[in-house]
């Protein structure tokens, strides 16, 4: 079981990543978010809770609606971690390019 607030756990699920993608376009009420998925409202609500616990989305009340918005700051942790691998692959691709140019 992953601890609450684990950003990597939060983005590990495809539905949660899709929720982040949808919210990147703008704030939406929970009902509108749920209508974009082929799972129950309860399932979307659980995914939103994981994202909230990880600090990736925020929720505010507007009347009877709960409006969700993207809070992307914690995604910096993911970007920082993946940066090492971007550098790795960039180096490999440069070497491959050099090799292919030599072969021609």
Report on this model:
- With 104 residues, this protein is an alpha+beta fold.
- Helices cover 62% and strands 13% of the residues.
- Strands 1-3-2 form a three-stranded antiparallel beta sheet.
- The mean pLDDT is 92.
Give me a quick take on this structure.
With 104 residues, the chain is an alpha+beta fold. It is 62% helix and 13% strand.
Supply the key terms:
single chain; 104 residues; alpha+beta; Arc Repressor Mutant, subunit A; three-stranded antiparallel beta sheet
* Tally of structural domains: 1
Indicate the CATH topology. Arc Repressor Mutant, subunit A
| Number of E-state strands | 3
Radius of gyration: 19 Å
What is the helical fraction, as a range of percent? 55-70%
Fourth CATH level, the homologous superfamily? Winged helix-like DNA-binding domain superfamily/Winged helix DNA-binding domain
> What is the topology, as strand order, of the major beta sheet?
1-3-2
Biggest sheet character: 3 strands, antiparallel
The parts where pLDDT drops under 50 for at least 5 residues are: none
* CATH class division: Mainly Alpha
Please tell me what the overall shape is. elongated
């Amino acid at each position: 079981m992953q601890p609450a607030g684990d950003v990597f756990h939060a983005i590990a699920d495809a539905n949660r990543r899709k929720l982040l993608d949808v919210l990147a376009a703008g704030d939406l009420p929970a009902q509108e978010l749920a209508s974009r998925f082929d799972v129950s409202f309860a399932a979307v609500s659980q995914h939103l809770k994981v994202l909230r616990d990880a600090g990736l989305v925020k929720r505010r009340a507007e009347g009877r609606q709960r409006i969700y918005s993207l809070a992307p700051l914690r995604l910096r942790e993911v970007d920082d971690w993946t940066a090492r691998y971007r550098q790795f692959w960039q180096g490999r691709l440069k070497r491959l390019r050099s090799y292919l140019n030599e072969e021609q």
